[in-house]
Amino acid sequence: SQMWLQLSQSLKGWDHMFTVDFWTIMENHNHSKESHTLQVILGCEMQEDNSTEGYWKYGYDGQDHLEFCPDTLDWRAAEPRAWPTKLEWERHKIRARQNRAYLERDCPAQLQQLLELGRGVLDQQVPPLVKVTHHVTSSVTTLRCRALNYYPQNITMKWLKDKQPMDAKEFEPKDVLPNGDGTYQGWITLAVPPGEEQRYTCQVEHPGLDQPLIVIWEPSPSGTLVIGVISGIAVFVVILFIGILFIILRKRQGSRGAMGHYVLAERE
């Protein structure tokens, strides 16, 4: 909780500094009344060898504007209009050294703390749930292979034809999206000739799987179910008709018997 408190306080300080920087850029562009946008990319990355790299960039009105260079303690202008702000900020040597200290010391230290806190979550591996669906339009038949609710994000998905890997150019590239619970979903699609769907299979590789998972499209049993229901209804109707016919015949036979007794009684 102490670390989160420190981060919250730090973010409040960043908010004030970014507001001042925003006004500085606007004044150097002679912008005062119009609506404008400042974008900031600030942070650091840790590589597998534990080396770190920091970045501090500003964008203005949707365009790259300025980037801080910690090695030289200056700013790189991405467009001519950024030069007045570049020169103004480079006069503040103390701020430049503070920027470098954050990128090379403070940011990596905070990142390391966050990694330690989330180690249990980041190290877990959730295997994907994979299924292949079938889609038919007036012009094309498509198979879609979907991998659902997996973690981490890295996953390999490919199509096989007659158990042989297909060229990636023959199907649409993989799409991956995050879920709200921290897992991911991905899918690939393939156009196939009608009637040849069973020749194609989807192969998925993921750290959460012990071995590659191969999934094939299986036709829905709904068609068989409908036929069964129709057949059952037809049989029921036939039985009902036979039952009604049997009852009618029984009644007619009973009526004839009663008439015969009546005639005999009159002859006596």
From TrEMBL:
> What PROSITE patterns has UniProt attached to this entry?
IG_LIKE, IG_MHC
Q: Which InterPro entries match?
A: Ig-like_dom, Ig-like_dom_sf, Ig-like_fold, Ig/MHC_CS, Ig_C1-set, MHC_class-I_related, MHC_I-like_Ag-recog, MHC_I-like_Ag-recog_sf
Transmembrane segments annotated in the record for this chain:
225-249
GO MF assignments: beta-2-microglobulin binding
SMART domains this protein is in?
Answer: IGc1
Q: Which residue range or ranges hold the Ig-like domain?
A: 127-206
* Lineage: superkingdom: Eukaryota
Compartments in which it is found: Cell membrane
Its Gene Ontology cellular component terms are: plasma membrane
UniProt topology in membrane: Single-pass type I membrane protein
Similarity annotation: Belongs to the MHC class I family.
Subunit structure, as described in the record: Binds TFR through the extracellular domain in a pH-dependent manner.
PANTHER family, per database record: HEREDITARY HEMOCHROMATOSIS PROTEIN, MHC CLASS I-RELATED
What does this protein's UniProt record list under function? Answer: Binds to transferrin receptor (TFR) and reduces its affinity for iron-loaded transferrin.
Could you identify this protein by its name?
Hemochromatosis
Q: What is the lineage of its organism?
A: Eukaryota, Metazoa, Chordata, Craniata, Vertebrata
